[in-house]
Phosphoglycerate kinase (Ramlibacter tataouinensis), 223 residues
Amino acid sequence: MGTLYLVRHGQASFGADDYDQLSELGRKQSVRLGEYFAWKGIRFDALIAGTLRRHKQTLAGILEGMNHASEHLSWDGLNEYDSQAVIACVHPEPLQKPTSPEMYRHHFRLLRGGLAQWMAGAVAPQGMPSYRDFVAGVAGALDHVRANHFGQSVLLVSSGGPIATAVGLVLGASPDTTIELNMRIRNSAITEFAFTPKRHMLVSYNAIPHLEDPQYAKWVTYA
């Protein structure tokens, strides 16, 4: 049996011109997660990450917290969908930068609707793969882990969409359920799979044990 830890990146820069950049809090979340892994005595035989900047920065923070340095495998099939392109399919007019709770809710209502249509094959967001190809990228990473790391401990750093997709694949979840899983994943959260050469099995989802102490209560974020 092997163990795969799927980690969502730390808080990025939601609403900024460049989302693909960890905030200062996102960096702290990542380092804190690495400290937790070190405290638990968890060591990784292999490291895999998407190719986005926030993925690499999160992995670097984790390794800093673990006081560990290692090479990792880059896997572009673990990159997130383009949320702006998804929303543009159902709301062609540019959205204002969200500055209120209602504007944030409006943003995510549109995102849910766009994701549902993309997953159904009803729309083709500009610059994005089909949903079938997106799923294949995630499934390929899971296949790689099973084929090459049986009996080992593997860390995979990605985003909410690919992690929710991985959970959906393992559980045989519907598209609607996969979207809801996606919307609930917290920054730097851990999802754990056990795996054999034949399959993955969900052990835990969206856990933040490294932030459970009251002193980290304000470090829990979603975007």
Notes: The mean pLDDT is 95. The first strand starts at residue 2 and ends at 8. The two ends are 33 Å apart (CA to CA).
